[in-house]
Amino acid sequence: MAGEPETEGDSPFTDVDMERFYGKAVVWAAKNGIAKGVNTTVFAPHAPVTREQMVTFLYRYANLAGEDVTGDYDLTEFGDHGAIHNYAKEPLGLVTGMDGLLNPRGNATRAQIATIFLRYSENV
Q1: In terms of Cα–Cα distance, which of 16, 20, 46, 19 is closest to 30?
Q2: 63 φ/ψ angles, rounded to the nearest 5 degrees
Q3: DSSP string, 10-25
Q4: First to last CA, the chain
Q5: Which of 18, 29, 38, 65 could be disulfide-bonded to 42 (CB atoms 3.0-4.6 Å)?
Q6: What backbone phi and psi angles, to 5 degrees, belong to 32?
Q7: Separation of alpha carbons 38 and 82, rounded Å
């Protein structure tokens, strides 16, 4: 989507090695507000990604890319809307969920990640 954008400087995260294949991408995403890490010094690059994190990353990227991601979203139709972290409420308004649930804190599968990124690339 963004290719391999250049990034300068060291990683703000103590657990992100700039020599690893993901190092520059993580730093670029952090500098552009797409991924914020577990806290200001820990990213947890080997931790599973939750569904709400995945959608939030894509939402923030689309916003950075100038896409219109505004809308009026009612998440109360989903039985698990109370489990959504505040940061993910607006981004999760863009997805349809499964069987009346969003499963925001469940881990995103590779298939779900591939599907959402494919749908994004087809619609921009």
Answers
A1: 16
A2: -60, -45
A3: --SSTT--TTSTTHHH
A4: 11
A5: 38
A6: -100, 10
A7: 21
Q: How many CB atoms lie within 10 A of CB 54?
A: 20
State how far the Cα of 68 lies from the Cα of 45, in Å rounded to an integer.
Answer: 29
Helix (H, G, I), strand (E, B) or coil at 53: helix
How far are the Cα atoms of 21, 35, 39, 104, 106 from residue 62, in angstroms, in the given order?
23, 13, 23, 19, 23
Return per-residue pLDDT of the chain as tens, 124 residues: 666 677 877 899 999 999 999 999 999 999 999 999 999 999 999 999 999 999 999 999 999 999 988 876 789 999 999 999 999 999 998 888 889 999 999 999 999 899 988 988 888 7
pTM above 0.85, yes or no: yes
